[in-house]
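Work Package 3 (structural annotation) set out to generate three-dimensional models for the target panel prioritized at the project kickoff. During this period the team completed the workflow that converts sequence records into discrete structure tokens, so that structures can be stored uniformly alongside our sequence database. As a representative example, we reproduce one entry of 130 residues exactly as it appears in the project archive.
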Amino acid sequence: MGNGLSPCFSSSSNNLVKLVFWGGTTKFLTEKQLAGELMFQFPDCVVCHADSFYIGQPVPVMSIDDELHAGETYFVIPVDRFPCNQILTAVTLASLSPGPTKPSLASFGQCPFEYVKAADGRTVIKICSL
């Protein structure tokens, strides 16, 4: 990818973990937490690192023992949005985009994703500021 992280990923503090929930709600964590603890609190959801979405690759669902790191952003998405081992496509991403009657990760009608080219020419997806 690029030489540095996109400013879209920065939280208000490097000591906080930013969680973006389906529907646009944002929450900040101040203590260490495992992805599995979040999945236990929200049993119908999966946790994905926001900087790990790549077109043509499996959806980056974290495992229960993965630690959430301060200064990073994570999605908490209903499991039914991503069937197991689904390859991420533009159609999959469109299901997260705002629509007239369906909830989304976007707030205020803005799409939270941008398409950029990686150093190897692959199209990668990054989250925009929410």
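The longest strand covers residues 73-78.
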